[in-house]
Amino acid sequence: VWAGGDVKLFTALAALNPFNPFTLGALLHLSFQWGGMEFFVASTKPIFMLNLFVGSVLMMTPYAALLSFSALRKKHLRAEFVEVLKKSAMVSLEWALILLPVQFVLEKISIFWVLAFAVVFLLSFLPKIVQHALAIMGAIGLLAGIFPVSPFLYALAIFLFFKVLFALLSFSRKHVLTQQKKISELQEGDIPG
Fold first, then answer.
1. Most buried residue, 34, 108, 118, 170, by CB count within 10 Å?
2. Of 90, 91, 72, 88, which Cα lies nearest the Cα of 166?
3. 1, exposed or middle or buried, with CB in 10 Å at 0-12, 13-18, 19+?
């Protein structure tokens, strides 16, 4: 057996047209500019399958996260749901605070600030005590006025959005998208896991 239907679909679409679907726009000299960016631009690189896959995942992720709200009908899961959201908010706050000193140092040595997210990813492998120390440093710098507030709010919004989204996905996968059945009760199409 070769994968599931979605993998077969992506492979078939990529085999039929591995190039950007806006190739027709290039042939007809169509262009559209919005916000300084040009759309309907054809690419000569075979990235359509990757583009299709990432777009599909991004489109389905909010729906899957919204499924977790259906677990709120079960009273015994409400407390766990609130705890998941609280934990996500606290982790997001901590990482937004960690980002402040990192961004400050990167600006002082003239490195583009967007790399701060990559540096924060690398910092996630450090011991928790170092992470907490950086977060405390960020909080002190924010309260003392050393670090500006707007980058902190942007980082907090980004971290909060993704952390809550992935926490909701994990919650829905655990409580909404699974059912417990005995092996003897499985029917055709059921997937044991």
1. 170
2. 88
3. exposed
